[in-house]
Design goal:
Number of strands: 0
CATH architecture: Up-down Bundle
Distance between the termini: 71 Å
Strand content: under 5%
CATH topology: Sodium/glucose cotransporter
Order of helices and strands: HHHHHHHHHHHHHHHHHHHHH
CATH superfamily: Sodium/glucose cotransporter
Length: 446
């Protein structure tokens, strides 16, 4: 085993053990499912840090670096467009809590659209959580060995088990507490990487980075506009995000979400600079890995540690959200024992695709299109709508998602060219159709 590999194993085991010993022990369901510690909910800083780091997952920063490599800084800005999701969710949830007195997304859906709507919605988000497990752990595996090697599989199994261990202790309390620690680590490590990239040896200036890429549809703007369109539905199918919208007071929640929107986008743009540097050096492949190797062992380990930190924060949030979904939202068993066994179940089920050599699909694009039907449901949450409106909109959204996956969308309705053109226009036409089918039953009833 090489020296780098030994250090990588050391980082995974040491960081997980530290988080395990620091994690609070949940003694009741309020601590486990709602992160209430000493009768206090998380404050603005804690909630904001938790939101940002649980969304800056290993897969997303890998994508940001690769988009920087493909499109220059324009790629980073395009991917950062998804962080509008925080602002949208923050404002909608704030109003839902203040004016609708809703205590969760499931509470809103059951009271407005009934039990069937809750079941369909729960299937959508359970699928999302299931995908989050394997798609993030596969990024970790790729740093330890090629897909299919024993080092690749063992690193994934060990990483998943260690993350599960500390989140089993405190549930949502563990998740939010460790998120703040992980956010601090992420900031320090990102600063180290940026100082290296802009150091004396590289001759790369901030001005040069800012001027990379071309602001055209073909070179990044397709993705930017698709991300902005998806931001009106995407956050609502992510319980990792929405669960945090009902923990603290409405005012604290709104502030946290708005700050997370701005700072999260900045973090993604800064991380994409790794890809911009890789582009300036004519590198190919996975931008973060190649830059790490070019700068030597220490920077490779720093990048590796960032991946471990961000993947762990997403994974622990996924486990805690899944247990809350089953225990509280679906009311299957509001006990610590049930909550902990639910986490074990999603950890095991979510790891199975790793052994089937699943592709790391861009969870942001495919699943983001699948749920565009949620746009009118949450944006017009206050307006009256019959139950059929929910089902029609969700069904049409899923239909457009399948059109994207199987490449069945008519080309004469795609008005730009280049990568992500079909993503943009399928989302554009899809959202228009979802709005129509959501509103039509209301018109008929009138």
């Amino acid at each position: 085993m090489t020296e780098v590999k030994i250090w990588q194993w050391g980082l995974i085991i040491a960081s997980s053990l530290v988080l395990f010993f620091l994690s609070p022990w949940a003694k009741d369901t309020n601590q486990f499912f709602k992160a209430v510690q000493k009768k206090k909910a998380p404050n603005t800083f804690m909630l904001m840090g938790s939101l940002i780091i649980s969304w800056i997952f290993a897969k997303s920063i890998t994508n940001a670096a690769n988009l920087g490599l493909d499109f220059g800084i324009v790629g980073g800005v395009a991917y950062a467009g998804y962080y509008l999701s925080f602002a949208v969710a923050g404002i909608v949830i704030y109003k839902m809590r203040l004016h609708g007195k809703y205590t969760s997304i499931h509470h809103f859906l059951s009271s407005k659209f009934g039990k069937t709507a809750v079941t369909i919605f729960s299937i959508l988000i359970a699928f999302r959580l299931f995908n989050e497990v394997w798609s993030n752990t596969m990024v970790i595996g790729s740093y330890f060995g090629d897909m299919g090697t024993s080092a690749y599989y063992w690193s994934i199994l060990v990483f998943t088990a260690l993350t599960l261990a500390y989140v089993l202790k405190g549930g949502m309390s563990s998740s939010i507490f460790t998120d703040v620690v992980q956010m601090g680590l992420f900031s320090i490590l990102l600063a180290v990487i940026l100082f290296t990239i802009f150091g004396k040896e590289t001759d790369l200036s901030v001005t040069e980075v800012a001027s990379t890429g071309i602001w055209s549809f073909e070179t990044g703007l397709n993705l930017l506009f698709a991300a902005l369109l998806q931001s009106f539905s995407y956050p609502f199918h992510d319980p990792v995000l929405t669960d945090r919208g009902f923990i603290s007071s409405p005012k604290v929640t709104l502030k946290s979400f708005l700050w997370a929107s701005v700072l999260g986008a900045i973090c993604i743009i800064l991380f994409s600079i790794i890809g911009v540097y890789a582009q300036s050096q004519g590198m190919q492949g996975q931008a973060a890995v190649q830059v790490g190797k070019a700068f030597g062992t220490i920077i490779l380990l720093v990048i590796n540690f960032i991946m471990i930190t961000s993947a762990a924060s997403t994974l622990d949030s996924t486990f805690s959200s899944f247990s809350k979904l089953l225990a509280l939202d679906l009311n299957l068993g509001n006990t610590l024992k049930f909550g902990r066994w639910s986490m074990v179940a999603i950890a095991v089920l979510g790891t199975i695709p790793v052994f089937l050599d699943a592709e790391i699909l861009s969870a942001t694009t495919i699943s983001g299109t699948m749920v565009i039907g949620l746009t009118p449901i949450f944006i017009f949450w206050k307006d009256k709508a019959p139950k059929i409106s929910f089902h029609l909109s969700v069904f049409v959204g899923l239909l457009f998602g399948f059109l994207l996956i199987f490449n069945w969308f008519p080309e004469n309705m795609i008005f730009t060219t280049g990568k992500y053109a079909s993503l943009l226009w399928i989302n554009f036409w899809g959202i228009i159709c979802c709005l129509f089918v959501y509103i039509i039953p209301t018109w008929i009833k009138k």
